[in-house]
Amino acid sequence: MNGIDHESSISIKTPEPFSFSECLIFLGRSDQEVLHQIHDDYLFKLLKMDGSLILIKVSADPNFILIEFPDGVPNPAVRSKIAAYVKDWFDLGRDLSPFYAMASQDKILKQLIQKYYGLRMICIPDLFEALAWGITGQQINLTFAYTLKKRMIQQFGEHLTYKGNTFWLFPSAEKIAGLHIEDLKILQFSSRKAEYILEIAKAIRDGILTKESLLQAGSPDQIQESLTVIRGIGKWTSSLAMMRCLRIPTAFPIADVGLHLALKKQLSMDRKPFIEEIEGMASYWEGWQAYATFYLWRSRYE
DNA sequence: ATCCAGGAACTGT
DNA sequence: ACAGTTCATGGA
C-alpha cells in the first residue's frame, strides 16, 4: 500500500517533516527544466508506465500529497506504480529524524534545516536518466548542462501535449542505445560524453546494468566500485547516482564543485574549501552525507 | 580574453 | 597510490 486510492486520484500520507513547497523550490531551480512543470502550487510530470504515457498533477495539503490525472485515469495497477514512483521521487519513505537530530547540533547544517525545514531529497528514480545527467554535467557549468539535457530530451524523448502545454519524458536507454555518436555531438555533447552515454544506454538496454543489480552489489563501497568500472563514471558521477537514484544516505560527492561553492558561501570564505577541510566538517555528518550535500546544494538557490 | 564549471581517462612515476 | 596532462565547450 503506497497511498489511498480514490480511483480518480491518489493521496499519500506525508511523513514528518515534509514541505511540498520546499521541494517545489528545488524543482524550480532551472527555468530550462522540461521534465516537469510547476503552475501555481501544482507540479506536473509525464510518466510512462506499462507502455503508456500518463500525466500526473501533484499537489499537497498539510498531511497528504495528492496525485491527480488530468489527461486520463490509469488502471489500478498503474496507479499503484505511480504512487510508488512519487514516494521514491520525494524520498517519502525515509525517516529524517536522525538527520534533523544530528543537523541541529551541526554548525553548518543547523541553519539549513531551519530554513528549508521539510525539504526532502528530490530523487531521479530512473537509472539511465541519473547516469546520463551525471555525465552531461561533468566539468561544465550547470546552465550549459541544462541546455544539453533539454536538447537531448526534446530531440529523443517522448512527449504529450495537454491544454497547450507540452510535457516531456527523458529518452529511454533503448532509444539512446540505437543512436550514433554524431547524434549527440550535433547537440554539442563532447565526443567522449556521447561515447559514455551511448555505452551506458546499451548496458542498460541489454540488462547488464540495472538498479536492482547495483543495489545487490553489496555495501556502498561495492556499489561504487561496480559503477566506477564503467567508462565515464568516476567517483563524482557514481556518488551522484547513489545519492539521487539508489538513495544511499552515505553517498557523498565530496569533490563536487556545487558542494564547495555552497560551503564557501555558508562559511563566508574567500576561497573554496580544501578536501581535507570538508572531510573535517563531514565527520559530523556520518550516515547522512547525501542529505547534508542536498541541503547545501539547496542553499545556493537563494 | 581569461578563468572556470555540480570530472574522467590516460600517462608516467 | 599519486600527480600531471589532455579532452571539451559554453558562461560569466
UniProtKB/TrEMBL annotation:
Residue stretches making up the HhH-GPD domain: 136-301
Enzyme Commission identifier(s): 3.2.2.21
Reaction catalysed by this enzyme: Hydrolysis of alkylated DNA, releasing 3-methyladenine, 3-methylguanine, 7-methylguanine and 7-methyladenine
Top-rank taxon, per record: Bacteria
SUPFAM superfamilies: DNA-glycosylase (SSF48150)
Claim: DNA repair is one of the keywords in the record: yes
Pfam families: HhH-GPD, OGG_N
Enzyme class per UniProt: hydrolase
GO molecular function: alkylated DNA binding; DNA-3-methyladenine glycosylase activity; DNA-7-methylguanine glycosylase activity; oxidized purine nucleobase lesion DNA N-glycosylase activity
GO biological process: base-excision repair, AP site formation; DNA alkylation repair; nucleotide-excision repair
Record's keyword terms, sorted: DNA damage, DNA repair, Hydrolase
One cellular component (GO) term of this entry: protein-DNA complex
Family: Belongs to the alkylbase DNA glycosidase AlkA family.
The name this protein goes by in its record: DNA-3-methyladenine glycosylase II
Organism (species): Sporolactobacillus shoreae
